[in-house]
Amino acid sequence: MRNTTSVRQQQPVNMAGVGFRRWAQALSKGKGSGISALLSGSRAASSASKDSLPGPYPKTPEERAAAAKKYNMRVEDYEPHPDNGEGYGDYPKLPDRSQHERDPWYQWDHPDLRRNWGEPIHWHFDMYIRNRVDTSPSPVSWSTMCKQLFGFIGFMLFMFYVGEKCPSYQPVAPKQYPFNNLYLERGGDPEKEPEDVKNYEI
Amino acid sequence: MADYREAPLATRPKTLDPNEYFNLSPEQRRAEEARGAIRANLKRQYQTQLNNPHRQELIEDPALTRWVYARTNPYPHFKPTFKTSLLGAMFGVVPLFALYYIFKTDRDRKEEQIKAGTLERKFSLSS
């Protein structure tokens, strides 16, 4: 039967690839109808088996090698998260790089995610997708960015403070009415002579 | 440019990265070749499944299955250490009591002001 490890050097076998092939073959020559073949024992060949899912922290070098093979990584590259009870198990600790940084011109299997099929996924992959957190290099250095941002904010705050202390606007005064402050309209006696109201100063 | 310091949590531009210039020893090249071999094997498996004319179903990605399983099942690997219990207390216990205390005192103070008639009822929308 054609093997997936038919290359001269030692290569990690993708267990699910082998399992998928066996399951597909069992299904094609399976006894009975499709549904019963699905429900019979051939389900164990899918990736729901124990040895292809994440497990506990690897303690011995053999466990580390097996875990590296499971995750499709080199044994030297495989580095599990430190075993401090935070729930990682044997999941590999990949570099904290966002998908923004990956080559946009390479032919990825999933171009929008910039990821190949079967590649180990970062624990915080859903944070590092191209719509979200970006760790790519910044155009200017951190100190320049800090100076520019806080300089601008500080300057604006200072100017607003100065504007509060020394306000500057068109001069205003209460509205002045003609005809002796509208003496007749306000119900003044038409016979009586109103006193003169002077709303100006010369 | 010699004093370029990258922002925290961001990376260095490729042209300023010393790895580009210094990683040329045979061991590193062999390592890169091994990684390329793994990548090529996975590509081959994916392309075989993708171009199979008899395939009816979706191509299942075991790396994705593992990731989802790892993210949803951290409980067997949980150990109550100082850090984890501190985090649990900070996020689970402290907000409960702190928010209760804050809201209760603020509302009691407002009630006192209403009863005394000193509450200033402004027209602004924010208070």
Polypeptide structure, described:
- The complex is a heterodimer of chains A (202) and B (127).
- Chain A is mainly alpha-helical and 202 residues long.
- In chain A, 29% of the residues lie in helices and 0% in strands.
- The longest helix of chain A is centred in the last third of the chain and has 24 residues, at 142-165.
- With 127 residues, chain B is mainly alpha-helical.
- Chain B has 2 domains: 12-78, no CATH class; 79-126, no CATH class.
- Chain B has 4 helices and no strands.
- The mean pLDDT of chain B is 88.
- Classes of the chains: A mainly alpha (202), B mainly alpha (127).
- The interface between A and B is large, with 52 and 46 residues.
What is the element layout, followed by pairings?
The complex is a heterodimer of chains A (202) and B (127).
Chain A: H1 15-28, H2 34-39, H3 61-70, H4 142-165, H5 178-182
Chain B: H1 19-22, H2 26-50, H3 62-72, H4 82-116
Condensed summary:
The complex is a heterodimer of chains A (about 200) and B (about 130). Chain A has about 200 residues and is mostly helical. Helix content of chain A is about 30%, strand content about 0%.
Secondary-structure-derived class of chain A: mainly alpha
- The residue-averaged pLDDT of chain B reads 88
Helix content of chain A: 25-40%
The ordered string of helix (H) and strand (E) elements of chain A is HHHHH
- Helical segment count of chain B: 4
Largest sheet of chain B: none
Count of the domains of chain B: 2
Radius of gyration of chain A: 39 Å
Largest sheet of chain A: none
Number of strands of chain B: 0
CA-atom Rg of chain B in angstroms: 30 Å
In terms of per-residue confidence, which ranges of chain B show pLDDT below 50 for 5 or more consecutive residues?
none
Please give the count of helices of chain A: 5
Oligomer: heterodimer
Identify the notable features of this structure and list them briefly.
heterodimer; A: 202 residues; mainly alpha; 5 helices; rod-shaped; disordered N terminus; B: 127 residues; 2 domains; 4 helices; elongated; NADH dehydrogenase [ubiquinone] 1 beta subcomplex subunit 8, mitochondrial (chain A); transmembrane helix (chain A); mitochondrion (chain A); transit peptide (chain A)
